[in-house]
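Q: Focus on the chain.
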Amino acid sequence: PGNKFPAALDDCENAYRALLELGFKPERIAIAGESAGGNLTLGVLQRARKHGLPMPSCVVPISPGTEMGRIHAPPSRTLRMKIDPILPIAELQRVDELYAGGHDASDPELSPLYADCRGFPPMYLLASDSEVLLDDTVLFARRAKAAGVDVRFEIWPVLPHAFPLFAAIYPEVRQSIDDMVAFA
């Protein structure tokens, strides 16, 4: 709450700029993020385009939050609120308020679901069919694909929100990590 939007996105943009300034070629940079980090990953792409920076080679948003304004929409937020063991929908509203503050939640840098995706690099999006943010990911993947972005999208069964974090608990998740590495 002490560093509301756009502070985290500013930091991510600055980190990406620093990589470029250090001489890392954009085609050698992949950006990935889970949940709020997936949101920031998509925000960095918008900032890169806005400031004329080269795009990274690819991005991997995992279970990204893409709609920060309407807490009970997209539909999976309501339909899966009793089965998502990680992200309780009631708390999501509080997180949105603490992060966004009074900022307009329809700002695409805050809610990437409303972003113009033209010119974005290839993306590999992942989500679980058990999580409240499933439709955030599905709807964003559709939007990006409609804008001509090379999109790979997978829905994994049963696993929790941001499931690649839990490889130590769920051995089957190792495959998703291998797939992300192969994609990059």
In short: The CA atoms of residues 18 and 24 lie 9 Å apart.
